[in-house]
Amino acid sequence: xxxxxIIIVGGASAxxxxxxxxxxxxxxxxxxxxxxxxxELETNNIxxxxxxxxxxxxxxxxxxxxxxxxxxxxxxLDEVVKVEDTDEKINDKPxxxxxxxxxxxxxxxAVILAFGKTPRNLDVPGEKEFVGKGVSYxxxxxxxxxxxxxxxxxxxxxxxxxxxxxxxxIAKKVYLIHRREQFRAFEYLVExxxxxxxxxxxxxxxxxxxKGDITVKSVLVxxxxxxxxxxxxxxxxxxxxxxxxxxxxxEGFVKIAKNNYIPVDKLCRTYxxxxxxxxxxxxxxxxxxxxxxxxLVVSAGQGCVAALQxxxxxxxxxxxxxxxxxxxx
Length: 329
What we know:
Elements: E1 3-9, H1 13-24, E2 29-33, H2 57-71, E3 74-77, E4 80-90, E5 93-100, E6 105-113, E7 118-119, E8 135-136, H3 139-142, E9 150-154, H4 158-168, E10 173-177, H5 187-194, E11 199-202, E12 205-212, E13 216-223, E14 229-233, E15 236-239, E16 243-244, E17 269-271, E18 278-284, H6 296-314
Parallel strand pairs: 1-2, 1-6, 2-3, 6-18, 8-15, 9-10, 9-15, 10-11
Antiparallel strand pairs: 4-5, 5-6, 7-16, 12-13, 13-14, 17-18
Helix pairs in contact: 1-2, 1-6, 4-5
């Protein structure tokens, strides 16, 4: 079996940026990811990424993807289900195994964990049954499928209001369902959506069930103050209630904090389970780490750091700093 220099788990801004830098350093680089783009696909307009006054999340993800491929990274679309230690070593360095949902196993001398966050579920009857049949977690991806239809957006944060705004331009009617009267979204987003004539707010309300036959037909909701229930006829439900870090694939492999984030040091190095000892050759970058600022530019920066330090690790350079254009490379 081929042993890669480095395998990157995740194909969003952190993982793809890491791929660019690793491939540019002539490392045999493989990216394994369930999809390209991650959380950035949920944002229609990105206005705080350096170099772009405004760009859609889809376009930015595609540009970084193309750059990673042109740099020489190999990208495989598959879902990683486990990252494990092996008994193998190459030049006294451990070899790690990455197992995927398709039943394949890949091996590498260094690993970058950059699989980000997973959208939260409502966990109500009908949700799983209608995923892809009217239930969606990405308005940017699926909004065009609901032209002139009636949809519901569930949530009260920035992603929910972004979704409502996107859908208002495509759907005939948008219900924004939120369990409280107050919102976590930025005030300017709230005010922008409030001005839209085809958006109706359904507040102090939770979704109890998603109904349909072949596709979604309605949502059953309950007012949390009065206990009153009613059924709202919709063609689609966009669930925008945040996300969480799903670290079960690295449980027992690296140290995991109580909040499920992966702790890293300044060089994006991870730690051995339940220890403060560095895990050799294993790095993490992006939203999966314990860095507090969950922004695209931060994720990209961490991806760069992780890749450059992985290069140093593989070449026994310690914490040596090299410019990317250094002739010594």
